[in-house]
């Protein structure tokens, strides 16, 4: 992509280079560091409960939740779809993910930890997401991908799948 301007050729080159870098970064986000490919199955659970550090009040100032109360968001809202974490740079994981999608009737969210979500989205013709800075994998304790996250009562079940 080029932005045509009346700038000096040197400035135009800098603009073109900047656009190319930005486009590449958007299409190929930085991979999540520290994750490996799943070699053996591992299943564990994540409890999303938090202890409320301060009083939560409604619009009229009435106390809704006192400080120190343990709150689990899964008491109020459920996980709408299973989450499947994969590294799209690994063709074996992409193939495995396609099979898992079929097993779940396409009803899960694919979240990449590496590779181009745009390329995979175009190929699969479905939304594909990216775990920016590894926020979700870190929170859920995922160390290997592919990993499938489903709800099991009031906690999340994480399966690292070979």
Notes on the structure:
By secondary structure, the chain is of the alpha/beta class. It has four helices and twelve strands; from the N terminus they run αβββββββαβαβαβββ. The chain has helices at residues 9-27, 91-103, 117-124, 135-140, and strands at residues 36-37, 42-46, 50-51, 56-57, 63-65, 70-71, 82-87, 108-114, 128-130, 144-145, 147-152, 155-160. The protein has a six-stranded mixed sheet, with helices on one face. A hairpin with a 5-residue loop joins β4 and β5 (63-65). The longest helix has 19 residues, at 9-27. The radius of gyration is 21 Å and the shape is extended.
Helix/strand order: HEEEEEEEHEHEHEEE
- Which sheet architecture does the biggest sheet show? 6 strands, mixed
Rg, nearest Å: 21 Å
Unreliable runs: none
Question: Strand tally, please?
Answer: 12
Q: What is the overall shape?
A: extended
Termini Cα gap: 40 Å
Mean pLDDT: 90
Helix content: 25-40%
Number of helices: 4
Q: Could you give a short description of this structure?
A:
It contains 4 helices and 12 strands. It is of the alpha/beta class.
């Amino acid at each position: 992509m080029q932005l045509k301007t009346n700038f000096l050729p040197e400035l135009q080159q800098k603009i073109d280079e900047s656009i190319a870098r930005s486009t590449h970064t958007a299409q190929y986000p930085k991979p999540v560091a520290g994750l490996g490919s799943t070699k053996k199955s591992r299943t564990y659970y994540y409890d999303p409960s938090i202890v409320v550090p301060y009083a939560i009040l409604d619009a009229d100032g009435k106390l809704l939740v006192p400080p120190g109360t343990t709150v689990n968001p899964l008491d109020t809202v459920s996980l709408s779809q299973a989450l499947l974490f994969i590294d799209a740079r690994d063709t074996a994981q992409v193939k495995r993910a396609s099979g898992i999608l079929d097993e779940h009737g396409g009803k899960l969210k694919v979240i990449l930890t590496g590779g181009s979500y745009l390329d995979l989205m175009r190929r699969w013709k479905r939304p594909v997401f990216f775990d920016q800075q590894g926020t979700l994998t870190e929170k859920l304790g995922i160390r290997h991908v592919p990993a499938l996250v489903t709800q099991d009562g009031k906690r999340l079940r994480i399966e690292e799948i070979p």
